[in-house]
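Risk register update: the risk of archive-format incompatibility is retired. Evidence:
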Amino acid sequence: MAYVPPTHTQLIAHRGNSGPSPENTRLAVEQAISIGVDMVEADVNLALNGDPVIIHNATLAETTNGKGRVDENSLAELKKLDAGSWKGPEFAGERILGLYDLLALARGRIPLNLDLKTHQSHSRHPQSGPRYADAGSGGHNGLHLHLR
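Archived output:
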Protein backbone atom coordinates (compact mmCIF):
# COMPACT_ATOMS: atom_id res chain seq x y z
CA MET A 1 0.00 0.00 0.00
CA ALA A 2 1.50 3.32 -1.08
CA TYR A 3 1.80 6.18 1.37
CA VAL A 4 -0.82 8.87 0.81
CA PRO A 5 0.06 12.15 2.51
CA PRO A 6 -2.71 13.86 4.47
CA THR A 7 -4.59 16.64 2.72
CA HIS A 8 -4.71 18.79 5.87
CA THR A 9 -2.58 19.57 8.89
CA GLN A 10 -3.07 16.74 11.31
CA LEU A 11 -3.94 17.18 14.97
CA ILE A 12 -1.95 14.64 17.00
CA ALA A 13 -2.73 14.08 20.69
CA HIS A 14 0.65 13.86 22.43
CA ARG A 15 0.44 10.97 24.92
CA GLY A 16 -3.31 11.02 24.35
CA ASN A 17 -5.31 13.93 25.71
CA SER A 18 -2.54 14.52 28.25
CA GLY A 19 -3.45 18.08 29.22
CA PRO A 20 -6.47 17.25 31.35
CA SER A 21 -5.79 13.48 31.70
CA PRO A 22 -2.88 11.33 32.91
CA GLU A 23 -0.55 10.80 29.96
CA ASN A 24 -0.38 7.51 28.05
CA THR A 25 -3.42 6.01 29.83
CA ARG A 26 -6.61 4.45 28.49
CA LEU A 27 -8.53 7.55 29.62
CA ALA A 28 -6.16 9.90 27.75
CA VAL A 29 -6.54 7.86 24.55
CA GLU A 30 -10.33 7.59 24.88
CA GLN A 31 -10.60 11.36 25.44
CA ALA A 32 -8.35 12.09 22.45
CA ILE A 33 -10.59 9.95 20.26
CA SER A 34 -13.73 11.62 21.61
CA ILE A 35 -12.50 15.15 20.81
CA GLY A 36 -11.75 14.15 17.23
CA VAL A 37 -7.96 14.26 16.85
CA ASP A 38 -6.40 12.69 13.77
CA MET A 39 -3.85 10.55 15.59
CA VAL A 40 -2.59 9.60 19.06
CA GLU A 41 1.11 9.60 19.92
CA ALA A 42 2.21 7.21 22.67
CA ASP A 43 5.55 6.24 24.18
CA VAL A 44 6.76 2.64 24.32
CA ASN A 45 9.33 1.38 26.81
CA LEU A 46 10.30 -2.20 27.62
CA ALA A 47 9.42 -4.08 30.79
CA LEU A 48 11.81 -6.47 32.53
CA ASN A 49 11.23 -9.38 30.15
CA GLY A 50 11.14 -7.18 27.02
CA ASP A 51 7.36 -6.75 26.87
CA PRO A 52 6.41 -3.36 25.38
CA VAL A 53 4.66 -1.02 27.80
CA ILE A 54 3.10 2.45 27.28
CA ILE A 55 5.03 4.91 29.44
CA HIS A 56 7.26 7.86 28.58
CA ASN A 57 9.95 7.83 31.25
CA ALA A 58 12.48 5.12 31.99
CA THR A 59 11.61 5.54 35.67
CA LEU A 60 8.27 5.14 37.43
CA ALA A 61 8.14 7.82 40.14
CA GLU A 62 7.03 10.77 37.98
CA THR A 63 3.80 9.29 36.59
CA THR A 64 2.98 6.30 38.81
CA ASN A 65 3.01 5.23 42.44
CA GLY A 66 5.92 2.91 41.63
CA LYS A 67 9.64 3.28 42.24
CA GLY A 68 12.69 2.34 40.23
CA ARG A 69 13.00 1.73 36.52
CA VAL A 70 10.38 0.44 34.10
CA ASP A 71 12.76 -2.29 32.92
CA GLU A 72 13.18 -3.60 36.47
CA ASN A 73 9.50 -4.69 36.58
CA SER A 74 7.46 -7.24 34.67
CA LEU A 75 4.51 -6.11 32.56
CA ALA A 76 2.15 -7.71 35.10
CA GLU A 77 3.77 -5.71 37.94
CA LEU A 78 3.62 -2.48 35.93
CA LYS A 79 -0.08 -2.97 35.15
CA LYS A 80 -0.85 -3.01 38.89
CA LEU A 81 0.58 0.49 39.44
CA ASP A 82 -1.60 3.59 39.73
CA ALA A 83 -0.81 5.80 36.74
CA GLY A 84 -3.45 8.44 37.47
CA SER A 85 -3.18 9.80 41.02
CA TRP A 86 -0.15 11.97 40.20
CA LYS A 87 -2.47 14.05 37.97
CA GLY A 88 -5.29 14.29 40.52
CA PRO A 89 -7.33 12.16 42.91
CA GLU A 90 -10.14 11.84 40.36
CA PHE A 91 -7.75 9.77 38.18
CA ALA A 92 -6.83 7.24 40.86
CA GLY A 93 -6.89 3.72 39.48
CA GLU A 94 -5.81 4.55 35.93
CA ARG A 95 -3.36 1.85 34.89
CA ILE A 96 -0.33 1.53 32.65
CA LEU A 97 -1.19 -0.06 29.31
CA GLY A 98 0.77 -2.74 27.53
CA LEU A 99 1.37 -2.10 23.84
CA TYR A 100 -1.13 -4.79 22.89
CA ASP A 101 -3.76 -3.13 25.10
CA LEU A 102 -3.20 0.16 23.25
CA LEU A 103 -3.32 -1.51 19.83
CA ALA A 104 -6.64 -3.17 20.73
CA LEU A 105 -8.03 0.13 22.03
CA ALA A 106 -7.06 2.05 18.87
CA ARG A 107 -7.80 -0.62 16.26
CA GLY A 108 -10.29 0.68 13.72
CA ARG A 109 -10.71 3.91 15.68
CA ILE A 110 -7.57 6.02 15.35
CA PRO A 111 -4.04 5.84 13.90
CA LEU A 112 -1.13 5.68 16.33
CA ASN A 113 2.30 7.31 16.32
CA LEU A 114 4.50 5.17 18.56
CA ASP A 115 7.70 6.61 20.03
CA LEU A 116 9.86 3.57 20.78
CA LYS A 117 12.20 4.56 23.59
CA THR A 118 15.78 3.33 23.59
CA HIS A 119 17.09 3.98 27.07
CA GLN A 120 20.58 2.57 27.69
CA SER A 121 19.54 -0.14 30.14
CA HIS A 122 17.42 -1.81 27.47
CA SER A 123 20.61 -3.44 26.29
CA ARG A 124 19.72 -6.14 28.82
CA HIS A 125 16.92 -7.19 26.44
CA PRO A 126 18.82 -8.93 23.62
CA GLN A 127 15.59 -10.46 22.29
CA SER A 128 14.17 -7.00 21.63
CA GLY A 129 16.42 -6.39 18.64
CA PRO A 130 18.64 -3.51 17.55
CA ARG A 131 18.41 0.00 18.94
CA TYR A 132 18.02 3.04 16.75
CA ALA A 133 19.39 6.44 17.66
CA ASP A 134 17.76 9.66 16.51
CA ALA A 135 20.44 12.34 16.76
CA GLY A 136 17.85 15.11 16.59
CA SER A 137 15.79 13.84 19.49
CA GLY A 138 16.85 16.44 22.05
CA GLY A 139 18.34 14.02 24.55
CA HIS A 140 16.28 10.87 24.13
CA ASN A 141 16.69 8.26 21.47
CA GLY A 142 13.63 6.87 19.79
CA LEU A 143 12.20 5.37 16.66
CA HIS A 144 8.81 6.72 15.61
CA LEU A 145 6.36 4.37 13.92
CA HIS A 146 3.10 5.54 12.39
CA LEU A 147 0.39 2.88 12.45
CA ARG A 148 -2.96 3.14 10.68
